[in-house]
């Protein structure tokens, strides 16, 4: 027993590539459940059940709203010293709640009030599950990933989440025909069971076999009281600035979500199928932007510690330019090169998003040991609030400006211009963020850890 402890104490800190990819499977599992409980259920409620679109919209908004609890889950994983159990606990809650949300669709025909009550409970716990699992996963990555690997780690886990969404959407789409509500529940339950099994395989032993990058001493333990820990995090000027940046940038990022396809249909005369393809073009750009940051960030991190800030700032600026292009395109439709513009927007969004997540990993440990969870929780809560507000604000802004200007072109010009300004402000904030390795961790850039034989 003592020999084992000595071996563990002497082991080099940091996750290897294989372990990072394994943790990416948890993000894929999260994405697979979320796509069924948001996109698929949204369509079923509106089309098959003939409910008002505002009902699934409010339910999806609710699952974002309850993620304001992320700092609580992050603090719990900081104090408990076992992030693996928080990850698996969150996935379990998410899988059960997702199945429950699907099951509520069978109640709407018999009792709307009962169905809504059950759906509200289910979506509340969906938010709790995502918050607990997602925050603890990012905290684990932040505390055990070497600085030079963080850009690539952020890229890997987010691309695997997208892969989980795509694979689940394709397979579930095949299995759902011929459609029935019972089949929907069975498929959602099956997806949850697979996601939980995959997550167990993914995380088992990873935390135990990789020591933290920064040693934890009694002086830098996180406060045992949640309010004290939260106040301590908010009192840090760097953490507070980054929280504001996350909120502002993700607000700009998400405001476009629900208006791009109507933009293509109203001003460019695209069919529903064509606007769906446009969405695919955007996501293709997102993947390219993520890949570029992951590869270039990892190659240059040892020589340019501020590379993440560079990609964050310029990702925001190019996103602003792309949105300005869409604003201009609204006045020149249908001659504007819409696909190229949206691809550029996706690439810039992907670059800034992954760079920002990599910066989160760097800054999460900046306050000392075992504070990654509470910090990731604060930033995750800011992101969730932005995502919840963004889509809603975009649609409301379009409706208001269309009514005021009596012109679709002027309405989209105004809203896209406003989004571009939000990204410019976010870029200005990003220039003040010192997302780079702490001095005590700089030597890890040249560590043998960066080239393990795995």
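^ structure tokens above, recovered residues below v
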């Amino acid at each position: 027993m003592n020999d084992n402890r000595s071996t563990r104490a002497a082991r080099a800190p940091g996750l290897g590539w294989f372990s990072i990819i394994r943790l990416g499977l948890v993000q894929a599992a999260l994405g697979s459940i979320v796509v069924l409980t948001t996109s698929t259920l949204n369509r079923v409620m509106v089309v098959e059940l003939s409910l008002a679109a505002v009902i699934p919209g409010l339910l999806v908004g609710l699952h974002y709203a309850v993620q304001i609890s992320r700092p609580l889950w992050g603090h719990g994983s900081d104090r408990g010293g076992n992030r693996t159990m928080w990850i698996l606990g969150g996935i379990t809650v998410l899988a059960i709640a997702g199945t429950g949300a699907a099951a509520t669709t069978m109640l709407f025909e018999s009792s709307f009030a009962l169905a809504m009550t059950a759906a509200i409970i289910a979506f509340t716990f969906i938010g709790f599950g995502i918050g607990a699992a997602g925050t603890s996963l990012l905290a684990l990555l932040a505390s055990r990933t070497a600085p030079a690997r963080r850009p690539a780690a952020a890229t890997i886990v987010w691309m695997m989440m997208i892969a989980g969404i795509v694979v689940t959407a394709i397979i579930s789409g095949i299995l759902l025909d011929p459609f029935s509500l019972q089949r929907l529940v069975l498929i959602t339950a099956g997806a949850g069971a697979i996601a939980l099994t995959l997550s167990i395989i993914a995380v088992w032993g990873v935390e135990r076999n990789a020591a933290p990058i920064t040693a934890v001493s009694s002086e830098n333990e996180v406060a045992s009281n949640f309010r004290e820990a939260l106040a301590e995090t908010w009192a840090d000027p760097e953490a507070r600035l980054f929280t504001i940046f996350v909120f502002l940038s993700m607000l700009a990022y998400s405001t476009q979500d629900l208006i791009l396809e109507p933009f293509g249909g109203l001003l460019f005369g695209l069919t529903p199928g064509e606007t769906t393809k446009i969405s695919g073009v955007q996501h293709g750009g997102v993947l390219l932007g993520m890949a570029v940051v992951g590869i270039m960030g990892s190659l240059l991190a040892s020589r340019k510690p501020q590379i993440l800030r560079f990609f964050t700032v310029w990702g925001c600026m190019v996103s602003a330019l792309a949105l300005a292009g869409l604003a201009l395109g609204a006045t020149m439709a249908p001659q504007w090169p819409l696909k190229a513009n949206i691809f550029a927007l996706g690439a810039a969004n992907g670059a800034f998003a992954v760079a920002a997540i990599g910066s989160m990993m760097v800054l999460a440990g900046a306050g000392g040991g075992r504070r990654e969870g509470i910090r990731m929780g604060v930033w995750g809560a800011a992101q969730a609030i932005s995502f919840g507000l963004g889509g809603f604000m975009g649609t409301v802004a379009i409706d208001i400006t269309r009514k005021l200007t009596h012109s679709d072109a002027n309405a989209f010009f105004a809203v896209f211009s406003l989004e571009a300004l939000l990204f410019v402000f976010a870029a200005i904030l990003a220039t003040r963020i010192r997302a780079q390795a702490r001095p005590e961790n700089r030597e890890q850039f040249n560590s043998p850890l960066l080239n393990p034989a795995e």
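Confidence is low (pLDDT under 50) at residues 1-12, 436-454.
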